Amino acid sequence: MIVLTIGVYVLAQINGIVYMYKGEFGNSILLFLIGSSLGILMMVIVCKMLAHKGKNLMAILSSGTILMLGFQSHFFRVMTAILVKVGIQRDSWTFDILTLMGSFVIVLAFYPIIKITKRYAPILMGMRK
Q1: How many angstroms separate the most distant Cα atoms in the chain?
Q2: Residue-range domain boundaries for the chain
């Protein structure tokens, strides 16, 4: 797993920035395809590892992805403001680190929010009572 993670990271650094909505796949479409295939393989491995552990956790989180998607930009703004108030300036961290930290914070923060929403306002998640 660590080898795959390092491989995806190195390929991403070599390939450069990808703008899929513009049809730009970095410096090489071959590197993009290899990196994306390794990323898919990583996700399959993680899902198989989590299939035995935390089925309930995964079911709750996957049912609330619409909530996470809707509020992630707000969480990133709040998290950035908190880091700046603490004294950590924006130019001292990279976008990758902020995105990774923000993703973990969002998942952890939304677990109780999803449970509450599912129980008291299921219509917000596309469910009927």
Answers
A1: 50
A2: 1-53, 54-129
